[in-house]
Amino acid sequence: MDKKRVYTFGNGQAEGKAGMRNLLGGKGANLAEMNLIGVPVPPGFTITTEVCTEYYEMGQDKVVALLKNEVEQAIAHVETLMRSKFGDVENPLLVSVRSGARASMPGMMDTILNLGLNDEVVEGLTRKTGNARFAWDSYRRFVQMYGDVVLGMKPVNKEDVDPFEAIIEEVKHAKGVKLDNELEVEDLKELVKKFKAAVKEQTGKDFPTCAYEQLWGAVCAVFNSWMNERAILYRKMEGIPDEWGTAVSVQAMVFGNMGESSATGVCFSRDAATGEDLFNGEYLINAQGEDVVAGIRTPQQITKIGSQRWAQLAGVSEEERAAKYPSMEEAMPEIYKELDELQTKLENHYHDMQDMEFTVQEGKLWFLQTRNGKRTGAAMVKIAMDLLHQGMIDEKTALLRCEPNKLDELLHPVFDKAALKQAQVLTRGLPASPGAACGQIVFFADDAAEWHAAGKRVVMVRIETSPEDLAGMAVAEGILTARGGMTSHAAVVARGMGKCCVSGAGALNIDYKARTVEVDGVVLKEGDFISLNGSTGEVYKGKVETKAAELSGDFAELMQLADNSIVTALVGKLIPQTVTFFIMATFYNVYLYGFLHYPCHSGIFPMLLAGLLLVLASQAFGVFLFGLFGSLRLALSAASLWGVISFSISGFTFPVMAMHPTLQALSVLFPLRHYFLLYVNLALNGYPVIYAWHAVTALLLFMLLPFFFLKRIRTAMLHYVYIP
Fold first, then answer.
1. Which helix (H) or strand (E) holds 414?
2. Is pLDDT at 644 greater than 50 in this prediction?
3. Cα–Cα distance for residue pair 86/250, rounded to 1 Å
């Protein structure tokens, strides 16, 4: 039977589950798991990570042929659940195509939404929904995303804007509006026409109209994105192997852009920047998911307290906030209540802080994704310790949740309070990722990399960041953006990297061609120094003095927890086995010498002592092997081999003195050999224990072996995973 390559989910059922993330990727496994635990998820299917490997081994055509039947069956399954048909004009099913590696790689690979639209289907969707603006808004988004991701419609050079964004700005300027959602139906139709003309001009091909042609183009584009530059760079930074590959998840579309009763958002079960146990996130009414993370529109807060905090930072009065920027808790109270209950359910299920994406379609809440959220070093420590105190995880898990390289973030310098009082505040944005950053302004990722290589400290300044900016973000001291909220690309990636980030500083006027940024009449050029306070959102002109960080609170408690004695831990783990094996040795001696009357001229008690020494020495040797190899699998394999050989080389089965001199020398490396010498001296010859001091000493030396690898054993125990 051919192996299964496609796994379906929907309507509370799924062929996969959370434990299958190696096969289904993190997104696919969690979509399946959410179905199984009763979270509302649009139906769909996941193409496995193994197919990604086949894609690069066999090529596109062969993989598409292998997948064709399974994918068509999975599409039929989704059609049944959604009561619509893929590619149909009157009752169309639209889908999204997303990547999903087993390790979270936010924004590094490609996504396509609203797939299945063409000139005829968009008219049918208009008739079906009675909402022409929604239908054409979805169509222009699809052409834009598909043109970018699949057809390669990119800016010609780094100083140019995205070709689709240039067309949008042109149409908005002609219309006299500032935001995309202010465009009318005829404007959206004009956008689609101009988009398709641009595709034809740049690629020489017409935009594809067949739904299945669009689908295969999108699936292959996601597989191709596994090996794009930004994904490769991110994997190197995060230590993710290339051979893991990505899964592809195809889901029925649900729409957040169907009017004022629809919305989309991103939320966190805890604060990803500080670790505070407070539900938070951002949403947009009448929008699709990419709008929230792309930074094109500044989103609103989900919770009332979050909205009030944002207003305080932005200098917005409570009256203006409530009227113009209400939270979801205030604007959509019933949806908010359901969202809050489900985020709690997901965190309790996964026992970790969750990063979730959701859509509200005409008053119905759908979850599109959940994953363990990226977090700053400070948040990592606080969340781990809070979950420990709340009884959700144990001490070992709390320690494992704290990555050593991210703990370094807590040791970075902070701004000196006295220096801050003297600093000139240029503007304020959102404190997207805490910390202090000071450096020279750069606007482009490749320049940031070059300046960093030359020994300069840089702060990357962008209107908004995209995955193409990853290389620059990786070397920058901090990131500053004019657009975007707490869940924008810049914010999420910066937190994952431990970089200071201030987002949504709307007063910034950035000119890429002139390489300047203007703030309230103050013009700064590329190379000028600025300082960022990621904890307050303040942006300062010039350099601000820093001081060493102070360690206290959760970090100090974590260090105390981590400083537990490895010797104590080992003793605690080994005592039950020691007692068990010694009881077995005692019964063995009693049976051998008491019932079978084997010769025992020294008495049974010296032999019991010899048995205890053998048990302790053998256990110590096993621990030594664990520390030597750092893997339980290799340690067990080596110990098993050692044990088998020991019976042949110890003297029990063949006289050692009759063996080759090399084997005689090697025999001293086996605890059983020294037990045999004790047996000969004590049981057979009846000598006192003192006459066998050399064998006793050898067994005691075996007991000391683990002490030479205590540090490695500690690391191995903390990161213990049995790898089959």
1. strand 414-415
2. yes
3. 12
